[in-house]
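=== RUN LOG ===
request id: a7f3
mode: sequence -> structure
chains: 1
length: 93
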Amino acid sequence: MSPDQWSAILDGFERDIALAVSGGDVPTWTPPVDAGPLPASLAERARRVLDAQADAAAILARLKHDAGTQLAAIDAVPSGSLSARPLLLDVRG
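=== RESULT ===
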Protein backbone atom coordinates (compact mmCIF):
# COMPACT_ATOMS: atom_id res chain seq x y z
CA MET A 1 0.00 0.00 0.00
CA SER A 2 1.21 3.48 -0.72
CA PRO A 3 1.92 6.06 1.98
CA ASP A 4 -1.22 7.93 0.88
CA GLN A 5 -3.36 4.82 1.43
CA TRP A 6 -1.78 4.24 4.85
CA SER A 7 -2.34 7.89 5.68
CA ALA A 8 -6.03 7.43 4.86
CA ILE A 9 -6.16 4.42 7.20
CA LEU A 10 -4.62 6.49 10.00
CA ASP A 11 -7.09 9.31 9.22
CA GLY A 12 -9.90 6.81 9.75
CA PHE A 13 -8.47 5.75 13.11
CA GLU A 14 -8.25 9.37 14.21
CA ARG A 15 -11.82 10.03 13.09
CA ASP A 16 -13.07 6.99 15.02
CA ILE A 17 -11.18 8.05 18.15
CA ALA A 18 -12.73 11.52 18.02
CA LEU A 19 -16.19 10.02 17.47
CA ALA A 20 -15.84 7.60 20.38
CA VAL A 21 -14.65 10.24 22.84
CA SER A 22 -17.40 12.65 21.82
CA GLY A 23 -20.09 10.01 22.36
CA GLY A 24 -20.76 9.30 18.71
CA ASP A 25 -21.44 5.94 17.17
CA VAL A 26 -18.23 4.46 15.85
CA PRO A 27 -18.69 2.23 12.82
CA THR A 28 -17.48 -1.34 13.03
CA TRP A 29 -13.86 -1.48 12.03
CA THR A 30 -12.95 -3.60 9.07
CA PRO A 31 -9.24 -4.28 8.60
CA PRO A 32 -7.85 -3.09 5.30
CA VAL A 33 -7.21 -5.80 2.77
CA ASP A 34 -3.59 -6.21 1.69
CA ALA A 35 -2.39 -3.20 3.66
CA GLY A 36 1.16 -4.40 3.63
CA PRO A 37 3.80 -3.02 5.94
CA LEU A 38 3.48 0.47 7.36
CA PRO A 39 5.84 2.87 5.58
CA ALA A 40 8.65 4.01 7.89
CA SER A 41 7.72 7.64 7.18
CA LEU A 42 4.38 7.09 8.97
CA ALA A 43 5.70 5.16 11.99
CA GLU A 44 5.70 8.16 14.35
CA ARG A 45 2.16 9.13 13.33
CA ALA A 46 1.02 5.53 13.84
CA ARG A 47 2.52 5.60 17.37
CA ARG A 48 0.61 8.81 18.12
CA VAL A 49 -2.60 7.21 16.88
CA LEU A 50 -1.95 4.16 19.05
CA ASP A 51 -1.37 6.42 22.09
CA ALA A 52 -4.57 8.32 21.29
CA GLN A 53 -6.48 5.03 21.13
CA ALA A 54 -5.13 4.06 24.56
CA ASP A 55 -6.10 7.47 25.97
CA ALA A 56 -9.58 7.17 24.47
CA ALA A 57 -10.00 3.68 25.94
CA ALA A 58 -9.05 5.04 29.39
CA ILE A 59 -11.50 7.93 29.05
CA LEU A 60 -14.30 5.62 27.98
CA ALA A 61 -13.54 3.18 30.82
CA ARG A 62 -13.72 6.06 33.32
CA LEU A 63 -17.02 7.26 31.84
CA LYS A 64 -18.40 3.72 32.00
CA HIS A 65 -17.37 3.44 35.65
CA ASP A 66 -18.92 6.84 36.48
CA ALA A 67 -22.17 5.89 34.75
CA GLY A 68 -22.25 2.61 36.68
CA THR A 69 -21.73 4.48 39.96
CA GLN A 70 -24.58 6.85 39.13
CA LEU A 71 -26.88 3.97 38.16
CA ALA A 72 -26.06 2.21 41.43
CA ALA A 73 -26.98 5.38 43.35
CA ILE A 74 -30.29 5.58 41.49
CA ASP A 75 -30.98 1.90 42.21
CA ALA A 76 -30.33 2.54 45.92
CA VAL A 77 -33.28 4.95 46.11
CA PRO A 78 -36.30 3.02 47.37
CA SER A 79 -39.09 2.72 44.89
CA GLY A 80 -42.69 1.75 45.27
CA SER A 81 -46.05 3.41 45.37
CA LEU A 82 -46.45 6.48 47.53
CA SER A 83 -49.50 5.00 49.28
CA ALA A 84 -47.30 2.26 50.77
CA ARG A 85 -45.25 4.84 52.67
CA PRO A 86 -46.33 6.99 55.59
CA LEU A 87 -47.02 10.55 54.59
CA LEU A 88 -46.67 12.06 58.06
CA LEU A 89 -44.60 11.26 61.11
CA ASP A 90 -46.20 11.91 64.49
CA VAL A 91 -43.33 12.93 66.73
CA ARG A 92 -45.55 14.08 69.69
CA GLY A 93 -47.01 10.69 70.33
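=== NOTES ===
The CA atoms of residues 14 and 33 lie 19 Å apart.
Helices lie at 3-21, 43-76.
=== END ===
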